[in-house]
């Protein structure tokens, strides 16, 4: 468990270091995600990597534990909104309406594009 | 008995223990309600924990800085949790690889819609220029959005507020909206949730379906990258 958490933190650390060092427009943890994914895939190919947290579902169990309460992790940042109510005071209602409309439009555009392309590909395969 | 009845409060308000405990207990309660209502969209645990803790802070006159001194231990785990998304992604890799083309096209369409729609709507609503700029990156995670806002000389804290509000509204709207469209493909539904409502949308997607969560995490990760390039471009083209 400790080694698995250590591996997750190490992936994040390397991700942050690379992102900062090269000035990439990407969150460090996202690069860490890709790194851990590559490690898991490499382990399936090279038996010598199946060691410590990469063995017996070690890092898998630790990751699922972290993800089980993903919502909790957003609470501290969300509470920041309540303390910044003065920011919303002058244009609050307009801002909330604009954001709500935009999120609906974005959800629809994304889901419909995904379905459309996926259906077109299926038709092509069938032919 | 202590001489000074306030000394306990003074101790508690200066140690991270109190606000860490409050964060965990309030979340445990709101999550239990969410479970009891079978994950009803309006019982979103982030939304309710937000206003309950916010009310606590206002009632006790506690600053966000002192609250965050305790809550930062929870906040810190966002980074490792993002890395941990590699595991469900790895376990569902075959479905992910076979959906790569629809994902890429939906990523582009969704990112462009997210930025263009918010900029146009904000201009239409007559919001001032610096507010429009701060709202533009609202569909990506707070850290990235604040960086984008800073590079545009906009207000990073307003950008963070816009990100949280977008995430919570997206997480509430996504299920009823998708049910109305009749789309049952959880790859597509999850992808839309992560793209429009970043991590809070992803947390919601995992509540509904694991495949939805996986695709949501992918959309969230790559939207951060695309939006970083898109916002400066859209702002040059669209903002007067």
TrEMBL record, chain A:
GO molecular function annotations of the record: hydrolase activity
Pfam families, per database record: LrgA
Name used for this protein in its record: Putative effector of murein hydrolase LrgA, UPF0299 family
Signal peptide residue numbers: none
Species of provenance: Bradyrhizobium shewense
Entry's transmembrane regions: 31-54, 66-85, 91-117
Localization: Cell membrane
Broad class of where this protein is predominantly found: membrane
Cellular component, GO annotation: plasma membrane
Topology in the lipid bilayer: Multi-pass membrane protein
UniProt cross-references to InterPro entries, sorted A to Z: LrgA/CidA
Keywords, ordered alphabetically: Cell membrane, Hydrolase, Membrane, Transmembrane, Transmembrane helix
UniProtKB/TrEMBL annotation, chain B:
Membrane-crossing residue ranges in chain numbering: 6-30, 42-61, 67-89, 101-122, 158-178, 190-208, 214-239
Protein location: Membrane
Major localisation: membrane
Protein's UniProt keywords contain Transmembrane: yes
GO cellular component entries: membrane
Entry membrane topology: Multi-pass membrane protein
Keywords: Membrane, Transmembrane, Transmembrane helix
InterPro entries assigned to the protein according to its UniProt record, in alphabetical order: CidB/LrgB
PANTHER family: PLASTIDAL GLYCOLATE_GLYCERATE TRANSLOCATOR 1, CHLOROPLASTIC (PTHR30249:SF0), PUTATIVE SEROTONIN TRANSPORTER (PTHR30249)
Protein name as it appears in the record: TIGR00659 family protein
